[in-house]
Design brief:
The chain is of the alpha/beta class and 288 residues long. The chain has helices at residues 9-18, 30-38, 50-53, 65-78, 97-110, 125-133, 149-152, 162-178, 190-199, 220-223, 242-258, 273-279, and strands spanning 22-26, 43-46, 83-87, 115-119, 138-143, 182-186, 204-207, 215-218. An 8-stranded parallel β-barrel has the order 1-2-3-4-5-6-7-8, surrounded by 6 helices.
Length: 288
């Protein structure tokens, strides 16, 4: 969309105030980013979920800063008029501020992202504030935080009791105070996500967090069922089953190669008779 105006963090805050929802989608490469932008997506997240979705890992933990730079650069080439956020991968923002800023700089300068995302609550607020002070927008992420999956005991719903709900509220407010421009709420009970959304002046973006967040984010491959085998997720709605279309198309190609129906007359290029004469010495291709 050549005439599309990319969002910025000021517009996003106004959209929340006006009650206008934000649409966000993950993308990991040039063609998916281009399609997302053409479809009107407002924010693209180059998530470290690429480890699970396109690199074949069991978790996001093996994803490196080099992986994130490579994929972010591909996405920003495809979606040049969309606000793009890149994930800071596992253990790249829990050391010194200098170390964190080196990773941020790579995602911004080499990857060409407009913002970075960090998972965590109170424990990362000082880092968030330092990155924001350096002039980089930060998207927070609380609730289910996949980088901490080994600490939280798996992929569990967050905010199911009073203590956990209070923790999430405190974390969200602390991230806002640290300067985050928005907060992702992942696998949070709807009631708690609603309360957090109403308490913050910055947008909340939900994934499995119910109907009352200020925006929603889904994984590209979930939305389009682009996986094999596909694992059903309660919080995901499938809008197209491209995985099945791809599988059927490749299967048909294999069959047509086997039965010699591809390529047919419409897929070949013809040479001039003089070319044939030169190849067969003027005797014709049958040697006569």
């Amino acid at each position: 969309m050549a005439n599309k105006q990319a969002l910025n963090i000021v517009k996003m805050k106004k959209m929340k105030a006006d009650g206008e929802r934000l649409s966000m989608l993950t993308a990991y490469d040039y063609p998916s980013a281009l399609l997302a932008e053409e479809a009107g997506i407002e924010l693209i997240l180059v998530g470290d979920s690429l480890g699970n979705v396109v690199l074949g890992y069991d978790t996001t933990l093996p994803v490196t800063i080099d992986d994130m730079v490579y994929h972010t650069r591909s996405v920003t080439r495809g979606a040049q008029n969309t606000f793009i956020v890149a994930d800071m991968p596992f253990m790249t923002y829990h050391g010194s501020i200098d170390e964190t800023l080196r990773g941020v700089r790579r995602l911004m300068q080499e990857g060409r992202a407009q913002a970075v995302k960090m998972e965590g609550g109170l424990e990362i607020c000082e880092t968030v504030a330092a990155v924001v002070a350096a002039g980089v927008p930060v998207l927070g992420h609380i609730g289910l935080t996949p980088q901490s999956v080994n600490m939280i005991g798996g992929y569990r719903i967050q905010g199911k009791d009073v203590k956990d709900a209070k923790r999430l509220m405190d974390e969200a407010k602390a991230l806002e105070a640290a300067g985050a421009f928005a907060v992702v709420l992942e696998l949070v009970t709807e009631e708690v996500a609603q309360a957090i959304s109403e308490a913050l002046s910055i947008p909340t973006i939900g994934i499995g967090a119910g109907r009352y967040c200020d925006g929603q984010v889904l994984v590209f491959h979930d939305l389009l069922r682009y996986a094999s085998p596909y694992r059903e997720k309660r919080f995901v709605k499938t809008y197209a089953d491209v995985g099945n279309v791809i599988r059927e198309g490749i299967s048909q190609y294999v069959q047509e190669v086997k039965d010699r129906s591809f390529p047919d007359e419409g897929h070949v290029f013809k040479a001039d008779e003089t070319v044939l004469e030169s190849l067969y010495g003027g005797a014709g291709k049958d040697g006569e």
